[in-house]
Write a structure and sequence with these properties.
By secondary structure, the protein is α+β, with helices and mostly antiparallel strands. The chain folds into 2 domains: 232 residues, P-loop containing nucleotide triphosphate hydrolases (Rossmann fold); 115 residues, OB fold (Dihydrolipoamide Acetyltransferase, E2P), CATH 2.40.50. 25% of the residues lie in helices and 35% in strands. A 6-stranded mixed beta sheet has the order 7-8-9-3-10-11, sandwiched between helices. The chain has a 5-stranded antiparallel beta sheet with strand order 2-1-4-5-6, with helices on one face. β8, α5 and β9 form a beta-alpha-beta unit. α2 packs parallel to α4 and α3 crosses α4. The protein binds adenosine-5'-triphosphate. Adenosine-5'-triphosphate binds next to α1. It comes from Luteipulveratus flavus.
């Protein structure tokens, strides 16, 4: 049974207002800048914060009403289901394992607190630990686990309680880069067989793109874009979303002759005239070429711009430029040296018309 939220809540001056559906078996990733309301959303779903308006419904708590949705929170009708009755599993950045219990007893805690006997609780725990590759650490104390193992135990503990809604709030953010890769893979594999609803809050686009079926972007307490990873990557509709997926994005208007003019004035040559007047324009950073002087030759878009920042990552670099337009270019590390790219350097940036994509805004 799905989770359905359509409502708002207030925290001080901040208002979170959104509609969100999560289907069984679906993983929805929630992304957004700091302070956009991601944790507030998790708190609302978990029952730690109440709605001020609207309604939230989720799967029924007992085995018998598993097929039906029940109202979890609706201030107008004074409906309120307490957090412990919502069948919600929660995993945070900190695994928060009980230090005095073995790994097995940590994981058995969920089923035991729902009334399972000692033997059943331990059997459930062992089965869950096996699914996250930790069957051999069942007897260990949490203090002897690596950070990645501890987080996998936290996931097993949340799932051993057979939640209908699993909330993962930055579950990988405290891990180092290498551990993050392996833990992400374990998480993705485990979630593929989880039949309940999952909401994953993350700052990392890679988590969202590799684990989630659908992405929801929040900004200032509102949803700014929803889509599958493919839709979001190919057609961002918000500057924050474009930054996350690493694309240059502008709003623009197209006239009857097909000339595309960016908000801010610069005209852009495109290969195919857009089929709408109001459009989004995108350019991949790797499609931007940088030159010391104005290049001559094939028709292309060219602007004289000033370097604002250079970020090196391995053999490539992202170069932020400003001037007639703001643009990010991705060039080789060798070009950074050849063109002496550093804040203040003036360069020519060019983009072929065939590398400019447009779609209706
Ligand atoms: N208890 C509170 N009282 C008043 N305001 C709050 C409270 N908790 C959060 N806020 C405000 O609500 C807004 C949203 O916070 P929230 O923690 O949901 O954002 P977030 O997207 O999770 O941010 P981050 O990525 O930094 O964790 C912020 O402006 C924050 O200052």
């Amino acid at each position: 049974m799905s989770v359905h939220l359509d409502g708002s809540t207030r925290r001080g001056d901040f208002t979170l207002e959104l509609a969100l559906d999560v289907e069984p078996g679906e993983v929805v990733a929630v992304l957004g800048p700091n302070g956009s309301g991601k944790t507030t959303l998790v708190d609302v779903l978990a029952g730690l914060t109440g709605l001020t308006e609207g309604a939230l419904s989720g799967p029924g708590g007992g085995a018998g009403d598993a097929a039906g949705a029940v109202g979890w929170d609706a201030p107008a009708s004074r409906t309120w289901v307490a957090p412990q009755q919502r069948r919600v599993g929660l995993v945070l950045a900190d695994p928060l394992l009980f230090p005095h219990l073995s790994v097995r007893d940590n994981v058995a805690f969920g089923p035991r607190s729902r009334g399972a006997g000692r033997a059943t609780g331990r059997r459930t725990a062992d089965a869950e630990l096996a699914t996250v590759g930790l069957a051999d650490r069942a007897g260990a104390r949490p203090s002897t686990l690596s950070t990645g193992q501890a987080q996998r135990v936290a996931l097993a503990r949340a799932l051993a309680g057979e939640p209908r809604l699993l909330l993962l709030d930055e579950p990988l953010s405290a891990l180092d880069a290498e551990t993050r890769v392996t833990t992400r893979a374990t998480l993705a594999a485990r979630l593929r067989t989880f039949e309940g609803c999952t909401v994953l809050v993350t700052h990392d686009p890679l988590d969202a793109l590799t684990i989630a079926d659908r992405l929801v972007f929040l900004d200032a307490g509102r949803v700014v874009q929803v889509g599958t990873p493919h839709e979001v990557v190919s057609r961002p509709r918000n500057p924050y979303v474009a930054r996350v997926v690493g694309l240059n994005l502008w709003r623009a208007t197209a006239d009857a002759t097909g000339v595309v003019r960016l908000d801010g004035g610069a005209a852009v040559q495109v290969a195919e005239p857009p089929d709408a007047a109001d459009v989004w324009v995108t350019v991949r950073p790797s499609a931007v070429a940088l030159w010391p002087q104005e290049p001559h030759g094939s028709p292309r878009n060219g602007w004289r711009l000033t370097v604002v920042a250079v970020e090196l990552a391995g053999q490539s670099a992202r170069v932020s430029l400003t001037g007639r337009i703001d643009l990010v270019a991705e060039v080789t590390a060798a070009s950074v040296a050849e063109l002496s790219l550093h804040p203040g350097t003036e360069v020519w940036a060019t983009v072929k018309a065939t590398e400019v994509s447009t779609y209706a805004a």
